[in-house]
Amino acid sequence: MSVFDKIPATIVTGFLGAGKTTLIRGLIENAGARRLALVINEFGDVGVDGEILKSCGIESCREEDIVELANGCLCCTVADDFLPAIEALLKRAPELDHIIIETSGLALPKPLLKAFDWPQVRSRLTVDGVIAVVDAAAVADGRFVDDAEALAAERAADPSVEHDNPLEEVYEDQLLCADLIVLNKIDLLPASDVARVTAAVEEASGGRAKVIATQEGRVDPDVALGLEAGAEDDLESRPSHHDSETDHDHDDFDSFVVDIPALADPADYVRRLGEVAGRHDVLRIKGFLDVAGKPMRLLVQGVGSRFRQHYDRAWGAQEARRGRLVVIGQKGLDRAAIETALG
Length: 343
Prior knowledge:
Elements: E1 7-14, H1 20-29, E2 36-41, H2 48-54, E3 66-69, H3 78-90, E4 98-102, H4 109-115, H5 119-122, E5 125-135, H6 136-140, H7 148-157, H8 166-176, E6 180-184, H9 191-204, E7 210-213, H10 221-224, E8 253-260, H11 266-280, E9 284-289, E10 296-303, E11 306-314, E12 323-330, H12 335-342
Parallel strand pairs: 1-4, 1-5, 2-3, 2-4, 5-6, 6-7
Antiparallel strand pairs: 8-12, 9-10, 9-12, 10-11
């Protein structure tokens, strides 16, 4: 790479729990000779995704190649967080072939994409593409779309009713900005639902992006990192529900962290997590747990009431064994009740 070449960057967006980190890990594992750097952003102050990638054991995934930006959304903190992170990586430009940026599950990709038009960024980077990862099972369950009949009945009873669905807006904004949509977790759907869900995603995206159906986030790196979209020059074709806003926040969502004591029966506890998430309509629970008598920490990740868990690495010799879970949901979560149920 010459000093006149721009470094390609890929923005990976997608709603909470869609499988963004899994997709990125797959890209790292199959990167070949590509030298990758990662910028990982999370909503909530437990850096689970960055920890997953740091502990992945892949030789080419060095800790110094990962920049974590926790407790916020890049779409709100572009100037404060994203630009300093990019400037730090650019100091190592000769060592890098590609930068992958994972946004938080609630981030809008377009404000981040606009930052690539800033002179100090545009001269050094180009956006190879925006990839939106979609949880196929969540789409099939209607997580992002209101019941049209129920909404019509509500408005018929009271024409003054104004109804905004923040989940639907974030989901649609992510799709409308994408060059490639990865329809993930299709293994959770019956075959008869795949075509229906694919059509729903294509409709929500306006048909502008290619859709790839997969599981475990498996995408060929030559495809994912070779879109050559030059997306920073194509902002007008990527509409957003928030184009008219000068500022954006996430007041429609709540996030908090719960400290969890050491567990004797992790299987029973994960079952209880699913029950609590379903009862309180929690969007996402993820974190690390301490299991008594086990040398390894337990990684737990939940989307709604669906949970997965595995032991990801041994606790460090100087590391405090501490169970912590981040809980994310729409505004109005009963924090006290959830903390009591989880503690």
